[in-house]
Amino acid sequence: MMPLTHIYKFAAPAAFYPLAGRLIPWFWGLAALFGAIGLWLGLAVAPTDFQQGEGYRIIFVHVGASWMSMFIYLVMAFWAAIGLAFNTRLSGMMAAALAPTGALFAFISLWTGALWGKPMWGTWWVWDARLTSELILLFLYVGFIALTHAIDDPRRADRAGAVLALVGVVNIPIIYFSVKWWNTLHQGASVSLTRSPSMAAIMLWSMMLCALAMWMYTIAVSLIRVRGIILERERHTNWVKALLLELNP
Amino acid sequence: MYWNSLSDFLAMGGYGLYVWGSFGMTALVMLLEPWLALRRQRAIRLLLARQLLAAMQEEEKQKKSMGAEPEETA
Amino acid sequence: MLRVVTHVIGRDLRLALRRPADVCSVLFFFILVASLFPLGVGPETELLRRLAPGVIWVGALLATMLSLPRMFAEDFHDGALEQLALAPYPLGLVVLGKTLAHWLVSGLPLALVAPLLGLQFDLPPEALATLAFAVLIGTPALSGIGAIGAALTLGLRGGGVLLSLLVLPLYIPVLVFGAGAVDASIGGMNPAAHLFLLAALTIGGLAFAPWAAAAALRIALE
Lengths: 249, 74, 222
Hints:
The structure holds three protein chains of three kinds.
Chain A: H1 4-10, H2 13-45, H3 59-86, H4 89-121, H5 129-150, H6 154-185, H7 201-233, H8 238-247
Helix pairs in contact in A: 2-7, 3-4, 3-5, 3-6, 3-7, 4-5, 4-6, 4-7, 5-6
Chain B: H1 6-11, H2 16-73
Chain C: H1 2-18, H2 20-41, H3 45-67, H4 70-77, H5 80-86, H6 91-120, H7 125-152, H8 159-186, H9 192-221
Helix pairs in contact in C: 1-6, 2-3, 2-6, 3-6, 3-7, 3-8, 6-7, 6-9, 7-8, 7-9, 8-9
């Protein structure tokens, strides 16, 4: 096991910045690898679905994006809790770096859900429990981003965002339950994109690999973003000054 | 391989617009976002470096003028 | 402990009563929004009766939200909030008191007026009673969740719009169960299940939200 002091060392922005820089290419590589295999399996090898025809292939991006949009919110809440509990600077930056990616995945999930709904249900949008919850999740992301951008003091922005993320994560199950309840009362759509009746192993593999590729992508892009945030916030420290002079002599 | 021809593949059994609309938007977002993030990170780095250099030059100038001042007054 | 809460409630009520216009304008906003809908969709009674639960509840949500910024703003500007934060009792209790005071001047009037709006929408008598009761037990949750948003946006530019972005998504469960109760009542069903869930939201909201709001206030005061 890694000694704890080792982890603490990388919790300092000065140590994390170069580490992130070294890790980013690896995560790009993994994302490309998983994505290529997943797409090849999903688009070229997987057979057609007997009920939904070729239209079902949208799940290979839709499911991954939906998963990531929810997962990223959980990770954000995790960093928020760490930041509030241990007062670490890096955790707030991580949450801020993750939020735009989460919002974009929520958007992709809605977009692909609409494109799937048109041929299957006959309309671009149905007030189905999953799509509605995804829309509300997008609202929660937008609220988080709007709040953290409205506060000028980065410390206060981090901490206020952390409180909001934690409140949001407690509320998400309640919101989902209420939307489901509302949906069953109003007789929503019954066909589901994710619960395909004949999910062959090959489809499942492709779905998993595409989701994994999106996961690696998320890490890579949020590391890029967090590096920018670190530079901005630590601009008055000596290590950032040394780094800047080294890069632009 | 599942498909017989390229046009078969692109048609997606009549669902081409929907399938490629989904994959296309996903690809667009997943290319655009890193590009923007990277550009922003570079922009921050350049801006900060320029500010730092300007501040250092300013400091040097002040040092020089401070050194020259006593002679002038003398 | 309870004395802190009642003391804050009394103080906030006295302050609010000094300015009755604030309470009235929120109330009239509620009436105005609900009256706009028939003008927008037409006066068919059948249609209006279908829309009524949702329209009146959305109106209640928006009216509550409009009155939120005042919850802490005044105390923040005259420094009273800082005093309260330094006091030896938990800030969460203070926030609970302020939440309840906010409910007394915004939620309670809404519950009293809601049946009148229901009449405009031609709701049957039992649905009117359900509506009043649902608004009565649902609005404390709105005040509680709203307190978090008000504390987070305290002293920020563009706070009002930001507040709505933060708070309205969190209001959705109250809207669903509140409108659902009235809907069930109109359809001749028993609204008890909805009302129980609404009460659960209120109890949960009043138990947890003040502490989150207190944490947000401390961040804003730093």
